[in-house]
Amino acid sequence: MAIIGSLIKGLIDLRDRIVTEPDPEEAQLEVxxxxxxxxxxxxxxxxxxxxxxxxxxDIKKAFAxxxxxxxxxxxxxxWWQRMHEGEENVTWPGKPPYFALSSGTTxxxxxxxxxxxxxxxxxxxxxxxxxxxxxxxxxxGDFFEKEIMMLxxxxxxxEAGDHKEGEISGISASRIPFWFRSYYKPGEEIAQIxxxxxxxxxxxxxxxxWDIGALTGIPSWMELMMKEVxxxxxxxxxxxxxxxxxxxxxxGVAFEPYEKSFNALLAHPITVIDTYLASxxxxxxxxxxxxxxxxxxxxxxxxxxxxxxxxxxxxxxxSISDDAPVIPLSEVKEEExxxxxxxxxxxxxxxxxxxxxxxxxxxxxxxxITGRTKFFLNVVGSQLSVNKMNDAxxxxxxxxxxxxxxxxxxxxRIDGEFYHSWYLxxxxxxxxxxxxxxLDEILKQANKNYSVARSKALKGVKVxxxxxxxxxxxxxxxxxxxxxxxxxxxxxxxxxxxWEDFIKKQLASG
Length: 510
Hints:
InterPro entries: GH3, GH3_C, GH3_M. This protein is an alpha/beta fold.
């Protein structure tokens, strides 16, 4: 009997029974008050009159009225850049000990997002909440004795003057408490290897020495790692190497597009738990098995606001217009898309994180990530969001019994006419024209705006199937492999021309 595991499971069950859920509205108000109080003497707090906001009868309304929206470029140019010049107390007291590097999905150059000690502690506390929620998943006692493979970016952080820099997964892993290190794989030595291929090679070489019970990381890179382990050991699935693998904690992107190809690497299904850990903070986690939605963390250093996701509020670069209305938590509705704004203990204020979400359960405050503002394809009025694209690709997978873990597209002009040009990453053997017709049909049925656009200015759909590995090679050439890197789903014409040139060269050389 797994005595230690049973004890840990018992403690988690006990904690879940003892800890009570805070009132959501009160919790968010207290978070906002705390943020404003701590930052009122910073340069940002003085400029926007945080003390006056705190004295207002309606703090939430006053905050929304006085402080504008910020995307990364705006807050970095106006405020965060001053930290890089050595200034203290800019948007949060003191100086941040870390900056999270995030190239995300939008370009080669990295964003540098401040990570304060308060944020490190908030991430730790949210992690404890998520562990507590494991009591809802009916996992056996021996699961809690198994090791956890955390496949993030390198933990060998860059020393940059008075702070360190790295991706948020590397920063978090570098702060793992001593008592957890025996459970954590691939271990500190391998985790510090910067080169992705070298790190995965070391993981493959050592895989049989570990008893992995859980995986955590971005789906695309987790798949690649498992494929390399399977290939190295000449087995048919990952359970032949890690027979006790029972849980996968996904994060960063929707898991659904990867579900079919991911499951193909397993001997049997495992429990998939979604999390929402971004460079800006730990926003949400899946707290129960009956859903794949995630519960917002409402009482831990992040204040949330929501802007209706409508074409008239979204600028071409993915930012939002200054007059876009904001909806408080108390007024959100289920199954409507919202642009997410956050204010945090790292000194992000009314910050456009770039994600769109929808509430699947307002009472439980559970959400799903539905896409990115920059991936909203609205050329000629098609109004395609990423979740609509994901749903259409998933239906293609089912209709043709193929796997399509990756895709990208752009609106392109051919002889003066607009087309949606799709690249689908798949090893399936289906005619491209047949896929194009089916994709067009699916999108017409699912999206009224798309159907109208197709009857007017949008001439048609073109599809080209390519090996999925080419998407990862593109990331390697333009950003890097592994870590927090995600593939952009929608490109502008200039970027798409570079993509097509890259793919032509890769196919010609292959």
